[in-house]
Amino acid sequence: MKYCSECNITYQDDVAECPKCHNPLVEKNALQEKDDLDLVPLHSLPGVIYGEMVKEALEKEGIGCVLQSDEMTSGLLAKGASAVGDVCYVYVERKHMKRAKTILHSMMDHI
User: What is the pLDDT of residue 82?
Assistant: First the structure.
């Protein structure tokens, strides 16, 4: 899979450019690049838009994260709307998991 080194979002191999920031995508998976970090799944969300909202909130609190979108979202290059069943996975470092869960819960307790 390809990913955007700026946004840390993965896309299908046939996508060449990040639809968000227009940077060229690279081959190495964002999760592989972060091998030296102890990344764990925080939560899955219904689409990249929610993932980006959570990422922004976490980063404001000093918690880095990696987003991985499913094939449907990346294939459609759709960001403004989500198809039924779209999923975006959020990964954080294990040491930040407790704080990240608290932040996520305060934002998205209805999801």
Answer: 55
